[in-house]
Write a structure and sequence with these properties.
about 290 residues, 3-methyladenine DNA Glycosylase, Chain A, 2 domains, nine-stranded antiparallel β-sheet, five-stranded mixed β-sheet, 14 strands
Amino acid sequence: MFYFIPRYDYSPEELREIADFYWLDFLVVPGRKNKFEGKLKKLIIEDISEENLVSLGLQGKRIGIISPSEEIQKFIVERGFPVSIVSDFQDNLDSSFKFYTLDDKFFQRGAKEVAVSLLGKLIVRKYQGRYVVGKIVETEAYFGPKDPASRAYRGKKEYNRGMWLPGGHIFVYMVHANWMFNITTDGEEPEAILIRAVEPLVGIDIMRKNRGGRKTKELCNGPGKWSRAFGIERERNEKKLGDDIFVADSPWKDFVICSSGRIGVREDLDEDMRFFICDSKFVSKASPTKGKK
C-alpha cells in the first residue's frame, strides 16, 4: 500500500507522527538516504509488479512517500496499487484509481473455496462521501444445518434466513454487541464467509473516529472491530453487495495462506475453516497454523 504525502515541510516530529498514524513500514523523504529509496528506483526502472515487490522484500509493506514525483505516482497508480493521498491526518483514495468489483459468480462457489480466494481482496465502503478501504486478511467458512458452529445449524429461522440467500448477499448478526459481517456463498446451500479481519488501507481517519481513536494496527483486527470501523450495522443485512459496500480485486496475490480451526466456537468441524495471510500484522488472533501455498 502506498501513501502519497504532497506536503514536504514537515518537522521530524510530525513525520514520526504520520508514520505512526498510518502504521508505515517505510517513509521516503526527499534528500534523505534510506534503504528504500534505492529499491524504489529499481522498481521504477524494472516495472512495479507483485513479483518485484516480493523479490525486494516490499510485498505487503505500507510505504509513505513525501512529495512523490509525477513519474513515481504514474507508475504506481497505473499498475493497480491502491494509493491514498494524505493531507495531514486525513487520507483519500487517489481519484484515478479504478476498482474491479467481483461479480456474483465469484461468490457462487463453495464456502471454503471463496474463503481462501477472498484473502488479499479489497473490502470497500462508501461512507459520508468518501471511500473506506481495507485488505481482507482473515476469513472463516460456515456451512448449513449440519455445521455445529454455523448460524444455519438446525435449519432456517427468522434470524438466520439471510444465509439461504444466493452467493453475493450480506448477512449481518450481532455477537457481544458487535456486528458480524458475512457474505453468502454457493447458489443453493446456506453457506457464508465471516470476514474476521481487515488491514486498514484508506480512510484511516474515519476508521479511527469510529473506533474511538484506536491505533491503526488495532482498528480492524477482529470481526466486530472492522465492522465498527467501517460503520456497518444491521441495516445492511440481506442486501446484495453493490454500490456502497463491495469487494474488489487487488494486485496482492503472492502470499502464504495459513489455516486453523474457527475461533470462539464451542464445536467445530474436523477440517480447518479459518484462513488468513500468514505474515499479516492485522489478523485477529495468533494460533497454531498450517501453511499453504
